[in-house]
Amino acid sequence: MAQTFLKTMFGPGSRALQALDGSRASYARMEAQAGETDVLTDREADFIALRDSFYMASISEDGWPYVQHRGGPPGFLRRLSGNRIGFADYQGNRQFLSIANVARDDRVCLFLMDYPARRRLKLIGHARTSDDPEQVIALMPPGYAAKGERAFMIDIVGFDWNCPQHITPPLHGRPDRGGHATASRRDRASSRPDFRCGRIMTMTDKLTIGVHHVGLTVPDLEQARAFFCDVLGFDVVGGKPDYPAIFVSDGRILLTLWRAADPSVARPFDRRANIGLHHLSLAVADDAALDAAWARMGAHSDVVVDVAPEPMQPGSATRHFLVFIPGGIRLEFATPLAPA
Q: Cα–chain-centroid distance for residue 242?
């Protein structure tokens, strides 16, 4: 990982400065392991597919650096095969800067950010565009209200994961554009780099920042997808066809749905006897949303009611209900926790 990226990006000047700083020997060992490319793994492919925006740098026709923001629903940028990634180019301000740039010099650099999780991924590669309608349609996110004009394909040469130093999570109470959970102002002010950036963590540091995703084993993948997407309005944002698995999200939580190896012998989870997931709880905005979710569950013939809508605790303003969804997973819907 990153060996080819570093060998490609380092030049005589940066190597000379590394030698003065004392870091050159370490980087030289990494460069010695570089191949033709840094091969994308499932880790990079999954991270790419979950992004709802990224920044792409290209070289202008006069040699200036140019950075452009690209956005869309999660999955609009994704791995196509091997080390090739792609996205649909939407109709925009008709300046055609990036298109003209890559036509002259196909080298680009992409910067992908996950602010809530304080992660970032840099990729370099060779880009080309195509106005072939079939390629454009294949890269358009389903149901997205934009006009695709051309396809962008990028053959990745190298990539580098950066440490989380100086990445500030969004402010509490204002979800970011991807709908991610946000950090409080106090957490934001106290965000510090971790040990990967040369700092020793103390016992008071928070090592984690929340739930990244929840993985569920299901007996019927299409049945589970239909429930979360058709009934609850989730979107498919990725998957692993060879497992097989489908990843779905409502913009705030990511669920990875994995099919049991042999559904015919898979046993339903007994929450009182087995160690593991007792139930999955999904948040709804208010009582009206809870009632709407209850109505949808009642209209679904394969949903079994466990607990009808009621206060979460006697006298509590927080209400919830629990059901067993198709496949047997116990699912809770709950309104926001009321102040104590």
A: 20
